[in-house]
Write a structure and sequence with these properties.
InterPro entries: E3_ligase_FN3/SPRY, FN3_dom, FN3_sf, Ig-like_fold
CATH topology of one domain: Immunoglobulin-like
Radius of gyration: 35 Å
CATH class of one domain: Mainly Beta
Protein name: FSD2 protein
CATH architecture of one domain: Sandwich
Strand content: 25-35%
Number of strands: 12
Helix content: under 10%
Pfam family, one: fn3
Distance between the termini: 114 Å
Shape: elongated
Oligomer: single chain
Structural class: mainly beta
CATH superfamily of one domain: Immunoglobulins
Organism: Grus americana
Length: 176
């Protein structure tokens, strides 16, 4: 019987058409309310620390900063460039790094050179204003001793050296 039933053509035409109302439901107020609940504000500007003692080598600098608010921060954007009196120098290029921590060690820098640093905080809502700018200085390169000019006698020695730095060095310490 089932086989015979399945072979029959069945006409399933509805006698009346269904009446559906075309309603447009406005969820804008609900959406606004939900967005206001989940929104976090953009963070405040971080505060960059001045250069700490022993935070530099001839080619690297350790830069630290802080965020003095309860802002939610996903990462920081650290920017830096060499300080120069020349206006259109190729070395004036700004560098930008994304950092998760409140510190960063920057490498491959020039010895005895001033660098300007500033930092911004980022979260899902946006980016903070940049911090104040801070100037850090890399350590000078060690001088080269001119061995052909060394002179000595019983009570004294004359040692000459040459700086490999472009910028002047404040002082040298000679250890015996």
């Amino acid at each position: 019987r089932l086989e015979e039933f399945l072979k029959k053509e069945v006409d399933l035409e509805l006698s009346t058409l269904p009446d559906f109302e075309e309603r447009v439901i406005d969820f804008s107020e609900v959406e606004q309310l939900m967005n206001s609940i989940n929104t976090i504000p953009a963070p405040c500007a971080p505060v960059i620390n001045p250069q700490a003692p022993n935070a530099a080598t001839g080619t690297s600098l350790r830069v630290c900063w802080g965020l003095f608010s309860d802002d939610t921060v996903e990462c920081y954007q650290l920017c830096y460039k060499p300080v120069s009196n020349e206006l259109c120098s190729d070395e004036q290029t700004e560098h930008t790094l994304k950092v998760k921590e409140t510190y960063c060690t920057i490498t491959n820098l020039l010895p005895n050179t001033q660098y300007e640093f500033w930092v911004s905080a980022l979260n899902a809502s946006g980016i903070s204003p940049p911090s104040e700018r801070a100037v850090y200085v890399t350590a000078p390169s060690p001088p080269t001793i001119k061995s052909k000019k060394i002179r000595s006698c019983e009570n004294a020695a004359l040692v000459c050296w040459e700086s490999r730095d472009i910028n002047p060095v404040d002082s040298y310490m000679v250890e015996l």
